[in-house]
């Protein structure tokens, strides 16, 4: 339909699901990633083998397409900036991506724009943190987060005492927040400045893996909190001048405050339920943003629960989805497998969306599914 | 997920939409058709260039896969039968496909099993028909249908008088039916014999092109007629021993009778709305049938209208979807473009599904869309 060529850096599950959404719209959709074994390889019009962290690979790829998007933040910054200078449309912009990739800059941004977030300090590394503890300017317990490259539960550590091991990287340190719940809100903004916001989701974590175990939508929030949260997100996406999706993770504290935790400028795990549960899936929405098309509706069609299918703890190797056929026999259950060639403990291998009349009834189905389905090797 | 390799004969829009449905399930999904320019080329794991009417091409393709399906009836019969004899799983079976491909055998089948259909006679060709008219055993007006190869409004002619031109092929001739409405019901049956039936849709034709102009679901039928229609379809799919989808087109006469018009043993134009409007899309349902998985739910999530996007009358060439961006700005409107490289008058270039609170409100949106959107070249 559109003669513009879209190129996405990254061929994991997010690239794959964007690619699936691109097909009904007949889009020219290219992917750059290391190997044809990756999830998105057969969900695009062209798959280019290369490394999205490598300057030359990104430049060569970017010059072949009209619009450059991402499915992961850890791409080569310099190449994105140079492609912008060559007149390419890079979404999100290299400037906003630079802020988001560095949790320190992210936090400073929130502070600058009066966006609520947990109080924090920045440290160059574990030695500085130890010094601060020694001088009493920092007290246990606290949360240490590496500024760059943390992903899927990596790079975050709760430091309870001198016994806890500090992460060896430039970090931000936050006070422990008195968390009541963790929510996420997905917003979309196109180049014309149109903004659409999805309903908040509530996330429940797998403590062991520090990954989302399941989420449900709508989040159980008071109407006042919902309105406040959506307002915050619309302020944030505007101030950051983001084009495309922005997934905003927030804490609701026991005092009823909302604190922004972190953001991702791309489709996000917390939006997977939108494929079946919202009027427009986050993946189609991202394509609409990339092409500066009018945004699609974000209304929820049905309450939903999303479960990540994680690799079982003790298995590494070619995945076997034990119990999948029984899961597919359940009504209103939608299976998404990413096609990863190897399962590993807690690796995200797929997800399942349950459409339900109420979150309560959906949670019963979730329990059954989690008992039946195991990714072994 | 499933190590079985699916091979589909035909790479048009139905193959493409099956291929899109295969991706979230991580299926090994192969397509055979003439050219990589065809719609399904980038919606499969492997596209094999070849001719599905050619014995050698189908045999070579079929031997590479485990389960053979179709997206069009006009495939090489002998090859399907020989592949079955070699132990391949062919769905639908060559025996049922043989009946369905020949409208004469189809009608005889209905008669044999007491399934209601318009009365008919078979003729070897136009000369026999003329003779029958001459001897008075056949009287004007009547409908002539070629027994084999008719498709998308081709091969059907209403013969009003000796002025009307007879089709030059082995044909069946039916009395004109006093049609109140045309409906279609989609049913699915897996190898275990599980049957799921979708809600009836009502079809409105573009008289000029003799193609479905739009359809809506649920059809406006009395509860009694709905029940009767679904019962007929479940009897039919069982008697024909169909595995996979069976789309059944029926007439409701002004007297309230239901008459089976014709069937197709595959995903069908009358089921496109199921992608957004039903709990399970017809394309995922067909994959479940091919793999003998439990069938998915067929409940309607929302009333829906489906419009075919047809090539505008006066244009042939590289398609331009004039007005598409305005259409995408409408809420609850889902665009599907098939990616055909050339538009031609009345060619099916895509479809649009409108989700609506009521058919009445949806029809207003349909009118707007049909005014805005034109496929030109």
Question: Could you list some keywords that capture this structure?
Answer:
homodimer, 377 residues, Rossmann fold, Dna Ligase, domain 1, D-amino Acid Aminotransferase, Chain A, domain 1, nine-stranded antiparallel beta sheet, 20 strands, globular
Give a count of the beta strands of chain A, DSSP E runs of length 2 or more. Answer: 20
Q: Helix fraction of chain A? A: 25-40%
Rg of chain A is 20 Å
Quickly give the CATH architecture of the largest domain in chain A: 2-Layer Sandwich
Strand content of chain A: 25-35%
Number of structural units classed as domains of chain A:
3
Largest sheet of chain A: 9 strands, antiparallel
Structural class of chain A: alpha+beta
DSSP summary: helix tally of chain A = 11
**Average of the residue pLDDT scores of chain A:** 95
Unreliable residue runs of chain A: none
Distance between the termini of chain A: 42 Å
Shape of chain A: globular
